[in-house]
Design goal:
heterotrimer, A mainly alpha (about 450), B alpha/beta (about 260), C mainly alpha (about 325), A: about 450 residues, mainly alpha, ABC transporter involved in vitamin B12 uptake, BtuC, Arc Repressor Mutant, subunit A, Diphtheria Toxin Repressor, domain 2, 3 domains, two-stranded antiparallel ribbon, about 0% strand, C: mainly alpha
Chain lengths: ~450, ~260, ~325
């Protein structure tokens, strides 16, 4: 189905845009929450907003019949009020009563939710139609949003962005180094209060689309994804916003497309939008956790494997070097005298050849190129330097070889220079072997 | 227990420990004879706390042999007492000083057994020996740093061990308590106990300890203080050469964790 | 149909009658089978409160209450998925006359508890994500998955408010048996290994060095939490159990700084709230014709008790200052 339809079709427009805006503001605020390591604050506040939803519906139900969309702001205001109350309670519990953070969060979370449940039961018995409205906030229901909602959420999202932009530098300072921020005049208490209000607002906006229970995830997932991709705060915000908005869209898109595709195959089912939004966000953060170039798991495993491969290659170079500068060694001898399998050896040798460290002689054996001699010598140099260092520190001569085998592949030129300076340009290693003179490699 | 009269109290050989892919200890070896007060010194992150935890079996080494009086930890465990860092504990916990000390008997009792009167008497006795008899019913958050440290010591005393492993017992402690702790340690030494103490103040090593272990990821030196603890060794532990090792360790971690 | 002896009673009448009948139960004059539904409610809620207060004490002291929150969300998913998705396929697991069979409950929840802790562990240690974000991601994702599965299989987006909030009015004797065993197991394990719990909670390093594996006790505590959550499932639903785990303990902590009194007070607060709430629920129905959710009432009551204790402490402090 055409993606553009989601923005033009009057039925799909409001839910799609509304969800995207909500998730955008949630994601932005979520960056602050996640960077402060208070991810579960969102969980506590979203549950704390629930009684506000219920009680305000309760009050409305006394005066109005169900189904009046223009009353939505009242409900949001109620939710906001109890969320703030919950925030206040958490601060009080932690500061005054010295209750630990996790217990304070769980206390507020559960008690407030219980109060909500209590009032909701009254609603169920007395104003059954309004009860349905309340359920919408529990699990989220993007589909019944209309343009009034979109305008409301757009305004609130814009407000969120505006505040974050205005206060960007103080926020950046406090996230990075609170004590320093204080010394340059940032009013920490005021800023914290503002941020918490922003969090409460974002949560209250968001529960309409993903519901109370899942809201915490919408604060966390986009921020996690963004954090994996960059270290610069500006881009964390931007990427998180993108992931948030994208999740809002995908949630709506997939919850319609997948059943449509399914019914083509004869399966009839529906998908709930709220959870689909969250699952989109979670999937994106999982992908980031796995595949982010610098920090992702796959990248890390790859670099570890590459390092090991390079080290093995360097060991081969050393081996050839020790045979003598112009020695030519046949494959079978290499196979016999090194711990590598035939396949490994062949791959390593091809790699080394390609990089120009070794060459094939006419007889079919392998020898170091002149560059290879220099490189191998450099590695041996690092090995022997490290041995001298370890002995200098106080290690026994018999023990230093193993460690040096590791370190020779790791030492950088800077460290090499420091070693040389510290040890006074040593000429011999502890086993009385000469330390090759270093020629700087390009 | 068939104890070889010559076997060292603590004997370590070829000990290498990684913590979360980072090398923390490299080829550590030492033999500590009985009845010695041993200080373990080194810069931050040198692996001193990790060494204690490895000795106690709380951290699994990559390689190496550890023996206490010629026996493995499994068989000699009862003879070793541990005094962890004060900061490792939540001092708001609802527990009295007396109950903390009583924990020293838990190992001996084993699970499913309850604390007996004899254990309580011993705990009171231990509190007296650290000068805390009036504080038995105090909630621990009401104690000062020095008092908390004494409590930990009393708990260790209750174990009636032969080897005491202590992690920074002098950190954040007032002078009077420091004097009291040293007095206690000396008394234990004369009773034939062996103490390994992670220490942070180089200035007091000469006064407090007989032996010293100087550590900076590698073992720099160990032995009697007069022989080993001099400027050259200190330079190798803390000076530029010490910093070099930290750099190297960082590089290794970068490569083994795939971060670089 | 036996007439419910509690219908038409107000708060005080309820309490008096209750005490009377409990006395009869203990002396054997009354049999379990002839317990009124209100009594079953009180007993179940009291046992839920008691076992929750007991293990909740250690959850709070170990600062892992958020893990318990996470578990309660994912166990809900496990139960619902098992019931709706798997039950039709399992031979002989047979739907219980009053809902889900015990085996399904236990199996589903233990599996999801395991899954939750495993996934959280993978996120923190393998994918190197900060712990608070890991916990939050795991339970929201599993919860969302659960809702999706339920919607797909039942064609309704309704997770069932009963699953979330429980249905105290539908409690039955079988639920009493379940929670009774759970409470027994919880008490037994805490009592038998009391000093080990104390040691691993207060000073895990010292405990490990003394042959008490802190890790093993933490795992055990997670299993016990899962059991308690299951036991509470029918009564208060899974999301409100958290209040039983945390609120009485926090309130009791205001009253004492010793461990055994803490456990005792937490238990008393929980049990007392349960009793008063059921009585109050009946009272509201009788006197004011106001039916309310008893589970919501209990949780609100726990909050009220906390505020009362707080207030009395403040008053006491003021009075001491005046002296």
């Amino acid at each position: 189905m055409n993606i553009l339809r989601y923005f033009t079709d009057p039925v799909l427009q409001a839910p799609t845009l509304g969800s995207m805006l909500m998730c955008l503001s949630a994601a932005l605020v979520g960056v602050v929450v996640v960077l402060k390591r208070r991810s579960l604050l969102g969980e506590a506040l979203s549950h704390a907003s629930y009684p506000g939803v219920v009680i305000s519906i309760f009050i409305l139900a006394a005066f109005f019949p169900a189904g009046q969309d223009w009353l939505a702001p009242v409900i949001l205001l109620g939710a906001f009020t109890t969320a703030l109350l919950g925030l206040f309670a958490i601060e009080l519990l932690e500061r005054r009563l010295k209750i630990k953070n996790d217990a304070a969060l769980c206390f507020v979370l559960s008690i407030f939710f219980g109060v909500g449940v209590l009032f909701a039961s009254r609603l169920q018995f007395e104003h059954a139609l309004w009860y349905k409205t309340m359920q919408v906030f529990l699990f989220g229901q993007a589909a019944t949003m209309n343009n009034t909602h979109v305008i409301l959420y757009a305004a609130l999202a814009a407000l969120t962005i505006a505040i974050l932009l205005l206060k960007y530098y103080p926020i950046k300072l406090t996230l990075f180094d609170r004590d320093y921020a204080k010394t340059v005049g940032v009013r920490l208490a005021a800023l914290d209060a503002l941020l918490f209000v922003l969090i409460a607002m974002a949560i209250v906006i968001g529960i309409r689309s993903v519901g109370v229970v899942l809201m915490a995830g919408m604060l966390i997932a986009p921020a996690v994804a963004a954090k994996q991709l960059t270290h610069r705060l500006k881009w964390v915000f931007i990427l998180a916003g993108v992931v948030g908005a994208l999740s809002g869209f995908l949630g709506n898109y997939l919850s319609l497309e997948i059943p449509a595709w399914g019914s083509g195959l004869g399966w009839k089912f529906t998908l709930p939008t709220g959870p689909m939004i969250l699952l989109s966000a979670s999937s994106m953060s999982l992908l980031a956790l796995l595949f982010a170039p610098k920090q992702g798991l796959v990248g890390r495993k790859w670099r570890i494997a590459t390092f090991r491969w390079v080290s093995q290659g360097e060991n081969l170079l050393k081996f050839l070097w020790k045979k003598g500068d112009s020695a030519v060694v046949r494959f079978t001898d290499l196979r016999a005298q090194t711990p590598y399998s035939s396949l490994q050896l062949w791959l390593l040798l091809s790699g080394l050849q390609r990089q120009g460290w070794i060459k094939r002689s006419r007889s079919g054996g392998y020898a170091l190129t002149s560059d290879g001699v220099v490189r191998a010598g450099y590695i041996v140099r690092l090995h022997r330097l490290w041995e001298v260092y370890l002995v200098h520190l106080g290690q026994g001569v018999e023990k230093v070889h193993c460690r040096a085998e590791e370190m020779e592949h790791i030492l950088t030129p800077e460290l090499e220079q420091q070693l040389v300076d510290l040890l006074n340009h040593p000429k011999q290693d502890p086993h009385h072997q000469p330390i090759p003179y270093s020629e700087r490699l390009p | 227990m068939d104890e070889n009269a010559d076997s060292a109290a603590v004997s370590v050989e070829g000990l290498s420990v990684n913590y979360d892919k980072t090398p923390v200890l490299w080829d550590i070896h030492f033999d500590i004879p009985k009845a010695k007060l041993v200080g373990i010194v080194g810069p931050n992150g040198a692996g001193k706390s990790t060494l204690l935890k490895t000795l106690l079996g709380m951290v699994q080494p990559l390689s190496g042999r550890i023996e206490f009086f010629g026996e493995t930890l499994k068989r000699a465990g009862q003879r070793i007492a541990y005094v962890p860092q004060r900061s490792s504990v939540d001092w708001d916990f609802p527990i009295t000083a007396f109950e903390v000390v009583l924990m020293g008997r838990y190992r001996k009792l084993g699970p499913l057994k309850w604390v007996r009167r004899a254990d309580r008497e011993a705990a009171t006795h231990a509190l007296v020996s650290v000068g805390m008899e009036g504080f038995a019913d105090r909630q621990i958050s009401q104690l000062s740093g020095g008092q908390q440290q004494r409590l930990f010591l009393a708990r260790a005393l209750l174990q009636d061990a032969d080897i005491y492993l202590m992690d920074e017992p002098f950190a954040g402690v007032d002078m009077a308590t420091e004097k009291a702790i040293i007095g206690l340690m000396d008394r234990l030494k004369t009773q034939g106990k062996t103490l390994l103490v992670v220490h942070h103040d180089l200035g007091t090593v000469h006064n407090y300890f007989d032996w010293v272990i100087m550590l900076n990821t590698c073992l720099i030196a160990y032995g009697p203080v007069e022989e080993v603890f001099h400027a050259d060794a200190i330079m190798r532990t803390y000076g530029a050469s010490g910093a070099l090792i930290e750099e190297a360790v960082k590089l290794v971690r970068g490569k083994t964790s795939g971060a670089s | 149909m036996i007439q419910n002896p509690y219908s038409g009673k107000n708060l005080f009448e309820f309490l008096i009658l209750f005490v009377q009948r409990m006395g009869e139960l203990l002396t054997g004059k009354l049999s379990l089978a002839s317990l009124a539904s209100d009594e079953v409610q009180v007993l179940v809620l009291a046992l839920v409160a008691s076992s929750a207060a007991t293990i909740g004490t250690f959850l709070v002291l170990k600062r892992i209450t958020m893990l318990a929150n996470s578990l309660s969300h994912t166990i809900l998913v496990g139960i619902v998925v098992a019931y709706i998705v798997l039950l039709p396929w399992l031979p002989g697991a047979g739907a219980h006359a009053h809902g889900i069979s015990i085996e399904v409950l236990l199996g589903a929840s233990l599996v999801t508890a395991l899954l939750t802790t495993l996934l959280t562990h993978v996120l923190t240690h393998v994918l190197k994500l900060q712990e608070d974000a890991s916990i939050g991601l795991v339970f929201t994702t599993l919860f969302a998955l659960g809702i999706v599965l339920v919607t797909v299989f039942t064609r309704s987006t309704h997770l069932g408010t009963e699953a979330i909030m429980g249905n105290v009015d539908a409690l039955h004797l079988d639920d009493l048996y379940l929670i009774f065993w759970v409470a027994l197991i919880d008490f037994a394990l805490i009592t038998l290994f009391f000093k080990e719990w104390k040691a691993t909670t207060f000073d895990p390093a010292f405990a490990s060095a003394n042959g008490i594996s802190s890790a093993r006790y933490n795992h055990l505590l997670m299993i016990m939490t899962s059991l308690t959550v299951i036991g509470a499932f029918r009564a208060v639903g899974v999301l409100l159990v958290l209040s039983f785990l945390v609120a009485p303990v926090i309130t009791a902590r205001l009253c004492t700084h010793r461990l055994k009194p803490l456990l005792l007070y937490a238990n008393l607060i929980g049990i007392g709230s349960a009793l008063i709430s059921v009585a109050l629920s009946r009272h509201l129905l009788t006197v004011h014709r106001l039916p309310v959710s008893t589970s919501g009432l209990v949780v609100s009551m726990l909050g009220v008790v906390f505020l009362l204790v707080l207030a009395s402490r403040a008053v006491k402090a003021k009075m001491q200052r005046i002296d």
